[in-house]
From TrEMBL:
Residue ranges annotated for the Dienelactone hydrolase domain, each copy included: 117-291
Keywords on record: Hydrolase, Signal
Organism in which the protein naturally occurs: Sphingobium limneticum
Molecular function GO labels: hydrolase activity
Domain of life where this protein originates: Bacteria
Lineage of producing organism: Bacteria, Pseudomonadati, Pseudomonadota, Alphaproteobacteria, Sphingomonadales
SUPFAM superfamilies given in the database record: alpha/beta-Hydrolases
Signal peptide (UniProt feature, chain positions): 1-33
Record's protein name: Alpha/beta hydrolase
Length: 319
């Protein structure tokens, strides 16, 4: 999801604030270019030649077909009815044997496939980590763009105030998405030899809704068993932490209008359970900063995450 801001209840349209600034400091041509970039524009569904179907079947009751659009210079998918996994494998000379499932966000109604998916996976592969972008099934939205925009506006207009789903209800509330996530881990482990992956060193990182899915995969199931997890601008409310919970890296901006003004008890819960946790609270960055380059320290989250992975031995070849 694209960055949000306290001054607006509509995170996916906040790029218009940049357009206003551009109009003040730049020429009318610059302002128009920014508006064009921020506007949702339908695009053809990409070929996705490397994507592998996860075998969890079509989304029950789905009527709208998968479609894609471009916004903020990035690609987004919606109405995903068939889950897939796209591998980004490192150069064998640099491969450490560790792997990670990358879960983009988008409120379970869209997926930020570039900023929180492919771009993250490419960067991880460059560090020697085998990365796998999961395109999980989504809640249906109107097929037409105008209807979709309105549905997102309705959802986000109260998102900062709405209560979050209870962790113990995740197995029900996120049943299709959890099935997809579990299937992703199963697929990677089944092809561990082919992909030169250590089946005991497979982690997961998620952004916003993808972070919710990451936590549900970790805490609401016993099937995936990620070796480490990353929660990037997801909710950090209290959850029951199992004794064998994996090391967790968490990052969020204090000015995140969705989750920045809530409590961060999950960090205390992890510490109380005596499980490894690293937490970065950035002063500014909004919501959805992902791999976008920004003039805020939140841009440093990826380097910090890679350093954390290195500290846990994930950049070194396994025994």
């Amino acid at each position: 999801m694209k960055e949000a801001n306290k001054t607006s209840a509509l995170p996916f349209r906040l790029g218009h604030l940049a357009a206003i600034a551009c109009a003040v400091w730049c020429s009318p041509i610059c302002a128009q270019a920014q508006e064009d970039k921020d506007k949702m524009t339908s695009i053809a569904v990409p070929a996705q030649r490397d994507a592998i179907e996860l075998g969890t079947g079509p989304l029950p009751g789905a009527k709208a077909k998968e479609s894609w659009h471009r916004q903020y210079g990035s690609q987004f998918a919606r109405n995903v009815t068939i889950a897939t996994l796209t591998p980004f494998l490192p150069d064998p000379a640099k491969a450490s044997g560790a792997a990670i499932v990358v879960a983009p966000g988008g409120g379970f109604r869209t997926l930020s496939m570039d900023n929180e998916g492919y771009d993250v996976a490419r960067a991880l592969a460059a560090k020697g980590i085998a990365a796998f972008v999961i395109k999980y099934r989504l809640r249906q939205t109107p097929a037409d763009m105008a209807g979709f925009e309105k549905s997102m506006q309705d959802m986000f207009s109260g998102a900062a105030r709405a209560p979050l789903p209870a962790a113990n209800n995740a197995a029900t509330d996120l049943a299709p998405q959890l099935a997809d996530s579990i299937a992703a881990f199963r697929l990677i482990r089944s092809r561990a030899t082919q992909w030169h992956v250590d089946p005991d060193r497979i982690g997961m990182i998620g952004f916003s809704a993808g972070a919710m899915l990451t936590m549900a995969t970790t805490l609401a199931t016993k099937d995936a068993k990620p070796a480490f997890i990353g929660n990037i601008y997801g909710p950090l409310g209290s959850m029951t932490v199992p004794q064998d919970a994996p090391p967790m890296f968490a990052a969020i901006a204090a000015d995140d209008p969705l989750f920045g003004n809530r409590d961060f008890k999950l960090i205390d819960d992890w510490r109380a359970a005596r499980r490894p946790v690293e937490f970065h609270l950035y002063e500014r960055g909004g919501h959805g900063f992902g791999m976008y380059r920004k003039a805020t320290t939140s841009t440093g989250w990826f380097d910090a995450f890679v350093g954390w992975l290195d500290m846990h031995g994930m950049l070194k070849p396994g025994n």
